[in-house]
Specification:
By secondary structure, this protein is mainly α. Helix content is 81%, strand content 0%.
Length: 85
Amino acid sequence: MTSLAALLPIDIFYLKIISGIAAMLIAIDRALNWGARWIYHRQMRHEYLIIIAEISFYENMPENFNKEEKKLIIWKSTRNYITLE
């Protein structure tokens, strides 16, 4: 928006208004950090859904899995849960 304000052939007063609005929007975006916050929440939700899927798989596991495979799945789910940030 500030680039647009510099390129437009309009009165200086309007340039100051447009530049001020752009500076305010950039400051608000940086202060609230909207982008990083939403990316973080989506990643956390995805990681929890993976753990829930692993638990669901363990609960509905076919009979032909041996005990070592079951332990591996539980260990993997627990490790994923502990390492969540």
